[in-house]
Queue: 3 jobs
Job 1
Amino acid sequence: KAGVTQTPRYLIKTRGQQVTLSCSPISGHRSVSWYQQTPGQGLQFLFEYFSETQRNKGNFPGRFSGRQFSNSRSEMNVSTLELGDSALYLCASSSNGDTEAFFGQGTRLTVV
Amino acid sequence: AQSVTQLDSQVPVFEEAPVELRCNYSSSVSVYLFWYVQYPNQGLQLLLKYLSGSTLVKGINGFEAEFNKSQTSFHLRKPSVHISDTAEYFCAVRNNQGGKLIFGQGTELSVKP
């Protein structure tokens, strides 16, 4: 069974640009969550999607958005990038969002 | 609301020695508890989980953890570590109604020969 796949693995963007990250969950999983990991703030929850609906949202500005497709694949978008958005973005999938979550390898975003 | 405190930011230990990584949590509702491991430039790998039942939970790579409800702790242990166990370890909680994972700040385990 394939694990959680995140693409791309690495990205370098310029301040002010926007970026889209992709996550394919484990087959059969309907919940996808996104987390931001930085050395200073640690792992912080961005949002969770379940059956194409945003079910939970963390405390991030509106520049961070996401969506989920009918095949459970998810994308997150960050607009008007700031230097502080440089981080490892992790996607996690679970069957219905209430037990264990399985993480992808992450996308390392660097904003210059 | 829940919170997680990992009491040690760094734990150096010699190969084949035992290790304990400490985790305390705070929650007003029942929770599920998890330990994840992160190797450099990798995502998080689930080591073990406590959902219900026996308070002693065994995971992968010889790790185990004990859920102590009265002390609100979920410490991770391994009787004999290997060089390959060098990584960062994260304790996490999630309320049993679902929702986000709340992570501790991580413990860097460094195993020396």
Job 2
Amino acid sequence: NAGVMQNPRHLVRRRGQEARLRCSPMKGHSHVYWYRQLPEEGLKFMVYLQKENIIDESGMPKERFSAEFPKEGPSILRIQQVVRGDSAAYFCASSPLTRTGPPSFGPGTRLTVT
Amino acid sequence: DAKTTQPTSMDCAEGRAANLPCNHSTISGNEYVYWYRQIHSQGPQYIIHGLKNNETNEMASLIITEDRKSSTLILPHATLRDTAVYYCIVSNAGNMLTFGGGTRLMVKP
């Protein structure tokens, strides 16, 4: 059973471009969580999604950031018009339908904005 | 979710047991104690979790006090590869996890 997969692992964008980060949850998992880790800081919750629904986006910046988890395919975290402050590691985690198991994390996507 | 308090850093000699404490005095009855670790900016790795009873798996043991206000993660024979930041998190099952600062464990030869 493959773990949580994220791609790309490394992403370089110039200021003003868009960044798309993908997360494929573990097989059978229908809940996805996105976290951001700024350099030398802890992990901060961004958004919690189920298939086709956003459950909690309290940690998501109000502008430029959006997330989706369609019925088919991976969850996408989209950052429009990136700025240098968006440079960070972005991790996603998934948990099963019943949410009884502990979330499993992916390896992360390291975004660098130049 | 209840807040947790952990020491900022700890050292442990290779081959010895590492005992990592965590205080969670405001924990509520249906909240679990989860432990994760992050090795050098990799994705957080699940270690163990428990509700009331002590738990043991192939990685570690979790000791939860009877009043559930604190817990200790025990790595029985620490190796250099156990050097990481260890996070103690209290949360209801299925909720998103809120990470604090964690304990930076340095295992030394």
Job 3
Amino acid sequence: DSGVTQTPKHLITATGQRVTLRCSPRSGDLSVYWYQQSLDQGLQFLIQYYNGEERAKGNILERFSAQQFPDLHSELNLSSLELGDSALYFCASSSGTEQETQYFGPGTRLLVL
Amino acid sequence: GENVEQHPSTLSVQEGDSAVIKCTYSDSASNYFPWYKQELGKGPQLIIDIRSNVGEKKDQRIAVTLNKTAKHFSLHITETQPEDSAVYFCAASKRAGKSTFGDGTTLTVKP
């Protein structure tokens, strides 16, 4: 158990809908990272937040947005969903902003029908 | 941007043999190289990492080597066991946060 929690574990929705994925980092960690893992593209870095502020941005679509709240939990919002958005979405956390161990949560499996 | 290539995509070995997974990266400024193990139904877990000021690092049966000149790094697992079966990912980064991952290697250790 990494100490990172993600909810929900599974999510089934329809095209065009909007969903919110939630992540709680390990106690004391200030950085949260979001990744997308699909069968044909491996692990793709989406975005990082540090202590409530956006720190780094990867291949995140404009239809996707994220935020980190004062209690340090983070949410990833996915809107206007398409079939291709079906994937595993992982959240990871680390203590700061340096290159350090990232602890991954168990992921949210999203299926868009 | 950074590009990380990982080989092989699948690897099958007999229990007790060694396994080697190789990654190459494109950005010479990358200076942090972690390796992750992902078991079925779970998130990736860091197993070892290396920074650019070090050429080799070992942790029991696992070792990582880095060749900065050639821009490649490798994961070595010795005396493999069935529980080593998983998907392994390499990654490279040059600044905090933004890591680029390889496409993964599915390792199968046959008893």
